[in-house]
Amino acid sequence: MSQTIVAHRYAEALFDEAVEVDAVADVDQDVLMMRLALADSTELAQFFKSPVISRDRKLRVTEVMFEGRVSETMLRFLRLLVSKRREQIVGLVLDSYRQLRDDHLGIVEARALLAREATEADLDRLAAALKDALGKEVRLEVDLDSDLLGGVLVRVGDTVIDGSARNRLEKLRERFRAGTGSVLDQ
């Protein structure tokens, strides 16, 4: 069975437990904190992935590192991952949990590439337009790409919405080649 499928099953179990004990908000915070910790600390990521470190030692270190810093639900879950020898997929589980939670709440993640810095008002309008188009709440991640001439390129899952100046110019060029374009059509 692929690690992604296994991670998804563990994430479902964590989400179900969080819902059952009314700890979704706490577990959400724990997941966010742990995702950031794994991204910031290669040592922590390697600790969970290492086949050399014994299960007992991983359990003890997990207790010391996370007790009092994460909810009891998350701590029990981490113990379960270690005891089942699944700690190496903790990052995948956390990502899968976030996706499950977002699906449950009707949230989609959109990544926008912009040619230049945008104001908060511009980003709010973009998020609102995406929300209207998708019918879901949008968590907007923004990156700058100096290769864009202008406009915006948005990726939502497997869908790409290309509102870049380069794309608009290419479409105009194609229309002129086909003999259907006019500057006045814009």
Can you put this structure into words, describing what you see?
By secondary structure, the protein is of the alpha+beta class. The protein contains eight helices and four strands. It has helices at residues 3-20, 24-40, 42-49, 55-66, 72-83, 90-105, 120-134, 165-177, and strands spanning 107-114, 137-144, 151-156, 159-164. It has a four-stranded mixed beta sheet with strand order 2-1-3-4. The longest helix is centred in the first third of the chain and has 18 residues, at 3-20.
Helix share of residues? 55-70%
At the first level of CATH, the class of the largest domain is Mainly Alpha
Q: Shape from CA axes? A: elongated
Identify the strand order in the major beta sheet: 2-1-3-4
Q: Architecture of the largest domain, according to CATH?
A: Orthogonal Bundle
| Cα separation of the termini | 52 Å
Helix/strand-derived category reads alpha+beta
Give the beta-strand count.
Answer: 4
| CATH fold-level label of the largest domain | Peroxidase, domain 1
Mean pLDDT: 87
Q: Note the beta-strand portion.
A: 15-25%
